[in-house]
From TrEMBL:
Keywords, ordered alphabetically: Hydrolase
SUPFAM superfamilies per record: HAD-like
Keyword Hydrolase part of the UniProt annotation: yes
GO molecular function, one term: phosphatase activity
Cited InterPro entries: HAD-like_sf, HAD-SF_hydro_IIA, HAD_sf
Entry superkingdom: Archaea
Provenance organism: Vulcanisaeta moutnovskia (strain 768-28)
Protein name: HAD-superfamily hydrolase, subfamily IIA
PANTHER family: 4-NITROPHENYLPHOSPHATASE-RELATED, HALOACID DEHALOGENASE-LIKE HYDROLASE DOMAIN-CONTAINING PROTEIN 2
Amino acid sequence: MNNALRILLGKDLVVLDGDGTLYIGSRPLPGAREFIRFLDEHGKRYVIMTNNSSFSKEHHIKRLRRILGRFFSYDEVFISTEAAIEYLYDTGVRRVYALGTPEFIHDLVSSGIHHDPERPEIVVIAFDKTLTYGKLVRAVRHIMAGTPYIVVNPDILCPTDRGYIPDTGSIWALIRTATGKDPMAVTGKPSSLFLNYMLRKLSVRPSDAVIIGDRLYTDIAMANENGVTSILVLTGETKIEDLVNSRYRPTFVVNTLIDLLK
């Protein structure tokens, strides 16, 4: 048994990224199903933690079942939308204008956050696959007029069956360039807010968890900044040469989840 797997089995919780780690688009990555089956067979507690805010939690659960062949409960999947909602509640905000998909807006409204394009307290920038120029103009005008904004996740690209597409981080770059203003907060990975929200729900300490992901600036950064063991897989955005100049250092690096099982 390799050191990475030995340490993983000694942790109380395995935190798995989705896009680029377990799957790309609608297909599982090499070793994903085998790794999930291995964790189940060894009775390991694990969750999927994704920054993809374009889908609702229910959509993610159905998608995971199709891709990985296993049913996931509501407490086994955490999405960045939940961290954004937690932040809005903690700051007392109930009225927002959001750049987000209909599913994202629905999740906000269902949680008691009113979507108000005219008089928002905060602008919310999410992974909006329904983005239009008109929506961008409205967001920029609100921010230029003094309305603060938050970013749901900083991912620049999202992998799909047909290649990479612009993610929230790319939309954020446009907003920041147009307004010259930085957000109040980034609520998804690598934010400690998202990690602490999840760990609090599951009653797990950071030192008792291990994070497996494919991005240095989200998955590994969150692990580094919170004292969590991390495993980088090279099946997504990060390439081995990216480690040379990166400030973020994974505890272990493997090419695929299959290699982790070897």
